[in-house]
Design a protein that fits this description.
Blueprint: H1 11-21, E1 23-33, E2 36-47, H2 50-55, H3 60-63, H4 76-106
Antiparallel strand pairs: 1-2
Length: 107
């Protein structure tokens, strides 16, 4: 029985296999002190192509307004209005911060 020698695979070949088959990384990190759990981080990562994701039932980008180009997508006018509102709120916040600093200095 002849032994086949494997050719070294390049990055493109590896990525192609990962995107075709999919890759799941799962893990939990727990931080405890004196048997008291302080923090738990649960990591779940799925790397695959869009076709594979749809085949396994993952399609959140279809219903998310920011990633979809459907009728519920965010329009340019909505985006401009939101950007304007954020700038307005930031201005109000900076004015309040400056007045609070001036008030503390006057004491």
């Amino acid at each position: 029985m002849p032994i086949e020698q494997r050719q070294p695979q390049g990055l493109v070949d590896i990525l192609d296999k990962i995107l075709d088959k999919g890759l799941v990384v799962a893990g939990d990190i727990k931080v405890s002190l004196a048997n008291v759990e302080l923090l738990t981080i649960q990591l779940r990562l799925v790397i695959c192509s869009i076709d594979k994701a749809e085949a396994i039932g993952i399609n959140w980008w279809r219903s998310d307004r920011f990633y979809s180009s459907g009728p519920d997508a965010v329009t340019a006018a909505e985006y401009a209005a939101l950007s304007s509102r954020v700038a307005q709120l930031e201005q109000q916040l900076s004015e309040k911060t400056l007045s609070a600093k001036a008030e503390r200095k006057g004491r």
